[in-house]
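Hey L., structure's done. Input below.
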Amino acid sequence: MSAFTAAEPAATATHNISLYRAIWRWHFFAGLLVIPFMLNLAITGSLYLFKDQIADTFYAHRYLVAETGTLLQPQQIADAALAAFPGAHATSYHEASAPNRSAWVTLSKDGQSTIVYVNPYDGGILGSVGSKQEFGWVVKRIHSLEYFGKWSNRLIEIVAGFALVLVVTGIYLWWPRQQTGGVLTVRGNPSRRVFWRDLHAVTGALAGTLIFFLAFSGMSWSGYWGANLNAWLTAHNFGTPAAVWDEVPKSTKVMQDIVSQAGWVVENAPVPLSDIAAAQSAKPIGLNKAVAIMHGLGMVAGSDLAIPTDETGVYTASHYFGDLGKERTVHVDQYSGKALVDISYDQYPALGKAIEWSNNVHQGQEWGLFNQLLMLSACLAIILCCATAATMWWKRRPAGRLGVPPMPPQKSVYVRLWFITIVFGAAFPLTGAAIAVMLLIDQLVVRFVPPLRRFLS
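Output:
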């Protein structure tokens, strides 16, 4: 005798329909909220991937020079920049990375920071730009919404969390359920809604892994989750190896205070102090010798060198772009020329290496042009998913209403969604809180406010 009754398959079917509708409704709300932000992330992310090529094309007068003889000494280059901006002082020096590239010096005056581009052969000034008006800086800050303030940056963190939700729920909705169309093929034509549904689903399914990777890896830069993760890794010695600072006095400054671009793992690592006692009997080594020491230690051509701004400061040579194997920071005493701290990617703990690697891939810096094109394909997929989602919604919405997917027949299915929200919120608190608010509005406000329910339906 069968152990099942006829009612049980029907109950199972109702439950499956309820779960599908609940997830579809959740997917819809999440997408509706984040489409503008996802478009911003994809467009600015695409620009940032090719920032160097864009800079060389539109700002060639700043970056490209003709090879005309012997390179000037670093101090001569810095002096040329300082002569163009009387009253300023130099805070960093970026040497020419190739014979046809310019050098640039960052100057500070009256609290304002300016990058001055110098021809390394004749000291000619090629141009200047405020540090916070430089193309790559602006694009990156708009990408993270940090350009508009701290709270807007928190908003983009919530969006990144919603992107993770959209990928997971999208894969669930796309998963084949005895249908053949809309899995790897697109049915119909642009005049039909099914065409846009299939194009949306297939694009999301094929690019889902890359989109998930971009959203998750991007979280490490977020103002709340990323900052707390970095602090936790540092405190537990999973990020920056603390032992390398044991033998040197430390200042209150951290890496991101003195360099324009620091590796994520070391951005909050302390900056050591020069031997202040030596200041009474020794003179600073100067920029020329500091650059020579940097070269002697094997730093990659084109590295940045932060210049000490007081008697306890250090020269900090750093390289954080391109091949991770060349990622490195060296702090040099400004009096003795001794390398106080020398840390490279190979010294990071496993978890620190993994995060730094994911960040490098996220920015298109790990495998050259292939990496750039791979991440660009993910950005284009996001743009296409946003466009198809908006078109699909427009075609299915009833006149004068929002067209939210219907409520699930079994309201008990929300218990499972609340459990998922709690687990997700423990990992990503800001996004978890936003999802909780979304669910409360959906279950309480929408249900008990008839005009709003009619508008959303």
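The longest helix spans residues 7-49. Residues 1-6 have pLDDT under 50 and may be disordered.

-- N.
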